[in-house]
Amino acid sequence: MENKEYGAHIDFKNKDFLLDVVRRCQDGDTKAMEMVYIGYKTSLFNLAYRFARNYSSSKDLLQDIFINIFTHIDGLRAPEAFNSWLYRIAINTCISFVRQKGKAKEVPLDEIENIDYSEEVDHPMRQHLEQAVKILPMKQKTVFLLHDVQGFTHTEIAQITKLSEGTSKSQLFKARMKLKDYLRSTK
Amino acid sequence: MMRCSKARILINDHVDHLLDNRKVQKLEGHLQKCPRCRDLLAEMISMVNGAKQLEIIPPSEDLWPAIRNRIERKHRNVFIRLPEKRPFFGFSLYPARLAYAVSTLLAAIILVSLFYYGLPFIRNGRNDMSKEELDHLKVAEQNYQTAIIDLDKAISDQKAQLSPELAEVFKTNLGIIDDSIRACRVAMGQHRKNRMANLHLLMCYRKKMELLNEIKNVMMQSG
After folding, report:
1. Domains in chain A and their CATH numbers?
2. Distance (Å) from the C-alpha of residue A42 to the closest C-alpha of chain B?
3. Distances in Å between the alpha carbon of B17 and those of A26, A150, B53, B54, B184?
């Protein structure tokens, strides 16, 4: 994962350290849980934010993600696969959240984020892309966010999502084509 | 000449640097002749770069205490379900399987001792109980039976809450105790006043009651 520096101050790239923290989490050590939270909160929040439609829902979603992680961590039999396991829990929680919200109702206008377009001059693509991601079907959105935004490889995405690498590639291709069409239509 | 549909797939891989030199050359050959695919490549690169630069939004600082509280609440519930010590045949339930194994062993010892030590009394007719003692024992036996029926009723509706593994352990132990009770009754049928058989019978009832009580407790804690 050639990732953005989401949780740089805790070095989970050190596998022994990560394994130790995971095992301590499995023993119910809340200090170790807090380290996991600090290490992954920004990455998972950004993932949650792009599944949920606003900041407030993203906070609830992030809480649900970490609750699911820490209540199921004692069932993790291969702590060395923690990273992909964690993102799998996160993705599944996001998808459940979106399905529940989708069944309920449209997002009220006052909950929709006020997007600051002041940076549009510098990053026109970025602003439109943020909107465009919302139209993607769930599977394509998942692969797109993991690959293009979070920086996972197709091999890692296959481990997280249980899709094959080929499916991951094809979903990414479809997602990009759909986004490209959307972005063209907004020009 | 490469078709555009094929080129589009290669463009997708190309922006991720997944193509080998041979495919890159093929693609470049196509791109030189196809302006639409050239545009697509430019759009793809711009889009992928845009995705990498999507804003990193920091979560608010107040989330961890809320998460920790929820985790601790959940943990507390788990701890309530697993008390530190549960009396069961005078043993702690930790580790549970050991306690069940010991209880099974105890029941087996009851059964074996009944046959090896109880039967000589039957044969010899020694150490008989008086009529008064028998009456007392009969009352005790009825009390145990009533308690067992009540306990059995209490747990019968909730048996599905037990894990299959635990249910099997309890079933096996109950079966052993019931076998012991039957053996006692056989012995008493041959010699009603046999002290050892009567005392073993009461002990079996007590063990059955304790085991049913234990099942009830486990169900309450898991429910």
Report:
1. 1-104 (1.10.1740.10), 120-187 (1.10.10.10)
2. 6
3. 39, 17, 18, 20, 81
